[in-house]
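Supplementary Methods. Inverse-folding protocol.

Structures were first reduced to a discrete structure-token string of length 446. This string, shown here, constituted the complete conditioning input.
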């Protein structure tokens, strides 16, 4: 039996993820010691309520409500409480005392990451956060270490399991969003208040973290353009399927050339529901799974796929970080800080260039198609495809448009500037021949 050096581990939080981390630390203590070169001694677990029901039965003597005292003298602090305060305060306390920290807290990193990384740099400690993006999927380390010698050009990811579950079931079963959301809550995928997921806040936090790593730039959360999925209807899903697409909530982190104000390069970071071609690997990401598609200059296309959430799955990512932190602690030397040397500007959504699909309800009479094409042409939006179908439901008698009948136009565009596109859609919406702009969706992953 090897007499390993002992490292004191403080765990903050014993919820879905924390309770599984505690279980694995205790059950696999010998193996983890062999892999990290140190005995990982779980000194205590901070919780809010000592008597709260837990997924895993944990030794009562390890539980405490005094996180501050637990942190004192710890070598590694694992934060799995979530939220901003007091998680931020505890992580700063841990770092200032020289402990390495491991966290899965994307909300905290996306809003206070710079402060936390600075504190780590001051003392040469490490901050590891593999669990913060896409649960069990290794994506932070690949971006930070494996691709450190390459240039990442673009990331398109499905990074929120709840919205993927909802959109996937809408696509596969033709169900309405409200019914599926209720199921997602019952199954524990979505929060009781699902706003963070369906409005894209969770995905935006993850996108900010991915873009910061990929482009060696601090990307504040405010710089991420965010749209949720609440506007996606069954009708839009059906239309997407008919056209060979599926609607997915995506996070896009993109390097742009020739569009920065002060430099030649800039970045765009955005989350929204978008059309993905059915042949694209991201189209076959089902249920609560996540996937991150990375395009790098030398490596080409890489895809990372797996469980984006779940207590035990996410615990795997946390423990990987704990083993690395323990190895660093044993080896000595400073932790590797975050690289922000590129400091690229972030462009506004209006400067993004992508393809779009515009669905309109229009009058079905001579000259309408030419009128619509003229408005698109004036707005510098080039048409790639057009499909017209006649609407089944006629309007009211006496209404000119209704007498003429209605048609549905689905227009696929070539790449266009978002600003041009949105001005053009506004002009279409105001025009007499257009009864209704049904939807405007971006096409990603080409
Ligand atoms: P839970 O809500 O299930 O658990 C939170 C835990 O933190 C609870 O044990 C709670 O104590 C404890 N806690 C909260 N506030 C305090 C406080 N002020 N002092 C002491 N303890 C406190 O969260 P999850 O396990 O789901 O998530 C943890 C982190 O991991 C979050 O940052 C989340 O974003 C991230 N994450 C979660 C994933 C998932 O699938 N769940 C996936 C990827 C990341 P008590 O039990 O007494 O209430
Ligand atoms: N609410 C998140 C999701 C949990 O649905 O993906 C994992 O971060």
């Amino acid at each position: 039996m090897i007499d390993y050096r002992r490292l004191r581990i403080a765990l903050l939080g014993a919820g879905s993820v924390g309770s599984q981390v505690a279980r694995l630390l205790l059950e696999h203590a010998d193996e983890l010691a062999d892999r990290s070169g140190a005995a990982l001694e779980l000194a205590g677990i901070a919780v809010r309520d000592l008597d709260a029901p837990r997924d895993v039965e944990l030794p009562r003597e390890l539980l405490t409500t005094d996180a501050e005292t637990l942190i004192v003298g710890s070598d590694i602090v694992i934060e799995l409480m979530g939220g901003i305060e007091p998680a931020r305060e505890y992580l700063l306390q841990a770092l200032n005392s020289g402990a390495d920290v491991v966290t899965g807290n994307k909300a905290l990193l996306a809003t206070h990451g710079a402060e936390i990384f600075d504190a780590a740099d001051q003392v040469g400690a490490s901050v590891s956060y593999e669990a913060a993006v896409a649960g069990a999927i290794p994506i932070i380390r690949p971006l930070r270490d494996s691709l450190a010698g390459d240039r990442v050009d673009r990331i398109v990811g499905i990074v929120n399991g709840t919205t993927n579950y909802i959109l996937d079931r809408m696509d596969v079963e033709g169900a309405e969003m409200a019914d599926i959301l209720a199921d997602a809550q019952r199954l524990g995928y979505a929060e009781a208040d699902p706003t963070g997921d369906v409005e894209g806040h969770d995905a935006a936090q993850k996108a900010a973290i991915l873009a910061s790593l990929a482009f060696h730039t601090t990307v504040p959360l405010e710089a991420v353009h965010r749209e949720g999925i609440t506007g996606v209807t069954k009708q839009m899903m059906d239309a997407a399927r008919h056209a060979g697409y599926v609607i997915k909530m995506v996070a896009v982190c993109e390097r742009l050339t020739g569009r920065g104000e002060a430099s030649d390069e800039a970045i765009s970071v955005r989350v929204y529901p978008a059309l993905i071609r059915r042949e694209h690997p991201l189209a076959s990401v089902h249920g609560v799974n996540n996937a991150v598609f990375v395009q790098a200059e030398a490596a080409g296309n890489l895809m990372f796929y797996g469980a984006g959430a779940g207590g035990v799955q996410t615990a795997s990512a946390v423990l990987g970080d704990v083993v690395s932190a323990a190895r660093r602690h044993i080896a000595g030397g400073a932790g590797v800080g975050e690289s922000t040397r590129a400091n690229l500007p972030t462009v506004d959504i209006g400067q993004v260039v992508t393809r779009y699909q515009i669905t309109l309800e229009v009058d079905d009479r001579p000259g309408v198609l030419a009128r619509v094409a003229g408005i698109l042409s004036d707005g510098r939006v080039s048409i790639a495809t057009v499909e017209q179908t006649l609407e089944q439901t006629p309007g009211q008698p006496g209404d000119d448009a209704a007498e003429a009948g209605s048609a549905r136009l689905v227009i696929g565009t070539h790449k266009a500037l978002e600003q041009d596109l949105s001005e053009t859609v506004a002009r279409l919406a105001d025009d007499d021949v257009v009864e209704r702009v049904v939807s405007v969706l971006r096409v990603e992953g080409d």
